[in-house]
């Protein structure tokens, strides 16, 4: 049974040439996926493999006749005559593209040397030279022959992804199914964590439960790392995976601390909001009481104004009556004065 080991991984957007036009790129992944170089020590074969879920979107054996071409500062391509297609990879930076291209050249040279050694052994044993089931075709399809022109195909969109080298061993035996199941499990757990984080922002009451769930998940990942180390401690890929899982755990723990701090801040804000609500209710009660008191005072003021108006009317009526009385008294006094004068004249006439 052949045993393949991951020897280098990166993340990129994967494309294949359109089989009908031979010019346009067709995306085979909705987002950036892990693209890994694998080495089969039994058959001395280097392969490029990429999975989107459980589906293999790249399964290309590197041959000495292949060449990796950089068509832009973030995009590269190579032709695979076995699959009769051209693969394209879009990277998040030029550095990631250069690293992938260097590895391609390195493993291509290693494949060439392995083929030469195999041919030498065949010649020494006088075995007719022929290609094995994993051999190479002598007339590979180049990007120019597939495109039909000398122009290099470039992607239609820019790429802005992150390198996240997560290695998952893959082979055609039961190991492949095992690791595919592990990959699906880890992706499922990742989806659950993402959903839990989104839900925590919408419902403050569920924070404690979600934080506890994160802690349980971190402990489970710790246990899973230990199990993977015990089961596959002899493979370099698992060691790399352990390092990455530990890094993921550290990131989750850091996020837990940040969420706990955010929860405390939310609690303080809730307490402050409760106090403000209490103050608001108290002020509203006082305002209501003040409005009632103001209404009573306005009613009293209207009553006093009515009384004052009535008093003024009575006073005016009294003044008119007094004025009439004075006029009448003046008339009587005038009459008495005339009567006095008449009596005086009468007395004077009698005395004479």
Write the layout of secondary structure elements.
Layout: E1 4-17, E2 25-27, E3 33-40, E4 45-52, E5 55-61, E6 69-70, E7 75-80, E8 85-90, H1 94-124, H2 143-147, H3 174-202, H4 207-231, H5 236-351
Antiparallel strand pairs: 1-2, 1-3, 1-8, 3-4, 4-5, 6-7, 7-8
Organism: Sinocyclocheilus anshuiensis
Biased composition (Polar residues): 124-148
GO cellular component, one term: cytoplasm
Structural summary, described in words:
One of its GO terms (biological process) is G protein-coupled glutamate receptor signaling pathway. It is a single chain. By secondary structure, the chain is α+β, with helices and mostly antiparallel strands. It has a domain at 6-119: Roll (PH-domain like). The chain has helices at residues 94-124, 143-147, 174-202, 207-231, 236-351, and strands spanning 4-17, 25-27, 33-40, 45-52, 55-61, 69-70, 75-80, 85-90. The longest helix is centred in the C-terminal third of the chain and has 116 residues, at 236-351.
How many β-strand runs? 8
Q: Which structural class is indicated by helix and strand composition?
A: alpha+beta
Shape type: rod-shaped
Q: Which oligomerization state do the chains in this entry correspond to?
A: single chain
Rg, alpha carbons: 51 Å
Order of helices and strands: EEEEEEEEHHHHH
Q: What is the averaged pLDDT score?
A: 77
Q: What do we call the CATH topology of one domain?
A: PH-domain like
Q: Give the helix tally.
A: 5
Runs in which pLDDT lies below 50 for 5 or more consecutive residues are 126-172
Give the percentage of residues in beta strands.
Answer: 15-25%
Straight-line distance between termini: 181 Å
CATH class of one domain: Mainly Beta
CATH H-tier superfamily of one domain: Pleckstrin-homology domain (PH domain)/Phosphotyrosine-binding domain (PTB)
The amount of helix comes to 55-70%
- Identify the CATH architecture of one domain: Roll
Largest sheet: 8 strands, antiparallel
